[in-house]
Amino acid sequence: MFADLYNRRGITLPATIVEELEVHLQKQKDYKFFLRLMQRDEIVESLDDMAGIEVYHNMIPLWTDDHSNYIGLHVEGACQYRISYISHEETDIAPAYRSAGSFIRELERNPHQDWDELKKDYPSDIELSRDQMNEDLSCIHELNDVIESDPRLNEDVRCQYIYCIMALTPQSHLDSLMKYIDDEDMYVQERACQIMGFHRYTPAREKLVEVSKKGMHNGETSGQTSISQNERTTKRK
């Protein structure tokens, strides 16, 4: 099914990913999953619906919760072959899984869980292998190049690319995200505070305190939450 669909859409995927999807499809036929792998016609219809939204141009929806939310595979671009959630309420294309295989393994271990309950690869709270870190840093470098090279980049697209950068950034490189706490986009500022809180990154505490008092509305709330998270842990470098 998947090879035919991708060929019709002019999408080229590694044979390993196509095989992983085909094997998972058979398991979905034999067992009920909360997150359902969609049929070909459903995928095509969803792609057509998303065609007018720029941030989704490099993604293909594959799974659904049957509540207008999807799990999509990046088929092109800096985040190629990673997995993201496509919500009908809030746009956020930040990768949550390193690969289709990683998501499938987690889903098959927990077939009755919804998206929020599943353990994600990103943002990562564990030490990465050298290869994994290099892969993520390469993706971040590519996203930064796009942002910096196009001064006319759509604000929504810029925001989504920064969401991706923040999700992918390893713990050892969190200092590179400090600038986003002062970003003029309130959604970027909000996410930066959330990421610092998730990692309990103590060096960001002073900035978080400032944002919690003088930041934009979203940033103020996230800053306060992140400070509380920060205070419950020891300093991380």
Please explain how this structure is put together.
The chain has 237 residues and is of the alpha+beta class. It is built from 9 helices and 4 strands, in the order H-H-E-H-E-E-E-H-H-H-H-H-H. It has helices at residues 2-9, 15-30, 40-50, 100-109, 130-149, 155-168, 186-199, 205-214, 217-230; strands at 36-37, 59-64, 70-74, 83-86. A 4-stranded antiparallel β-sheet has the order 1-2-3-4, covered by helices on one side. Helix 5 packs antiparallel against helix 6 (155-168) and helix 7 runs parallel beside helix 9 (217-230).
Descriptive labels:
7% strand; 237 residues; 4 strands; disordered C terminus; single chain; alpha+beta
